[in-house]
Amino acid sequence: MTLLPRSLYGRLLATALFATLAALAFAAVSIGAVLDRFVMRGLDDRLDAQIAILAQAVGRDGTIDRSRLILAAPYDDARGGWGWRIDAGGRTLASPAKPDLNAMEERPRFPDGPPPPFARHDRDDRPRALDWRDRDGPRHARSLTLATPAGPVRITASAPRAIVDRPLRAAMMPLLGSLLLLGAALTLATLVQLRIGLRPLKAMRASLAAIRAGKAEALPENQPSELAPLATEINALLAENAAALANARGHVANLAHGLKTPLATLALALPPHDPDGQLREQVDRIDRAVRHHLGRARAATPGGAMRVATPLAPVLADLTNALGRIHADRGVTATVEIAPDLTVAVDRQDLDELIGNLLDNAWRFARSRIAVEARVAADPRFVRLDIADDGVGIPPEAHAAALAAGQRLDERGDGHGFGLSIAHELATLYGGTLSLESADLGGLAAIVTLPRPPAASPGTAA
User: 230, exposed or middle or buried, with CB in 10 Å at 0-12, 13-18, 19+?
Assistant: First the structure.
């Protein structure tokens, strides 16, 4: 189980925030250490200056000349907490706030450790740092040991540690505030960077949605260098799928044309030779098997039905014009009411066949008028298409039988009774429906519902 989020946005944001927090923490510690060293160096310089002044009162023989003691501020005021002390030959001269040597802890300044107290050392010519705690709190001191004929002399100058801590705290508060503001600015910059950096992925997703909806055929080529190879591979896959789709369509069309007419002819020629209906049952089984596998071939073709988006108005215009010329001698008038922007998720070839069969039936049986109307259905994911005529119609009890393959309810004229069944199968194949009703014009009304492309359907993902 990983602690990282599943999304790239979340992972990049988490790692950026972690890196920002680590950098700010390191900056706070580093700057605090630099400030502490800087302030402490200033205090050490003041203590070393006082040690140098006190050293002038120590004679060559190790005696202390009080007349040469110079106590500048703040060492002249014991209430300030600053103190000094001179230890020589068992005698001690100190300020009222004298440092307690018994509580002092020496901080090593040399690799081999601090020199022992009051012992001569080659590198004992510089003051050493001392830290301890008394009843008033932490203290800091500098101590220098001088070698004299009378013995070592130690000079110590001390000050309250608060002299260093107070300015450090005063400096760290605005520093931490500045670091917090910097962290907020970096976080905002990270969010902006992620939105800009991941925008090409969102654009690619939108392009893929457009391809799936049938509005585009390939991804744009102007991709960032990191995404360009991926876009190239996707476009190559789309091209292969399109070629496979065209090949499958060709085979399906060839098979349909090769089997549909012989089966229809065989079904019509069977009754005189099939008194018990057994041969007709076998032909129906063959017909159902052929239609089943043709439907599977269509549905399983790479890309699927939902990748296409066919405008409905041009299809209706082409079909009504063509059928109007074919049946011009019948004097039938067709009126079409359709919004120009309606599209359906149906392949153009299948849509031509579906609507063509319905319109052809309407033209064959209409007396003088056909009404075609298309609009968004009650379910906004679908388009409803009504094709009505003023012919004799079909009795309501025969509507279901009219949709069965090979059923001819009117033996007049040519045809094999497959038009309505083919339209019904195509509508069902694409997730739609076909139903028959009695039309207000007096004849038959074929009502088709077909799915809309995902991008055109409210509330559906693109």
Answer: middle
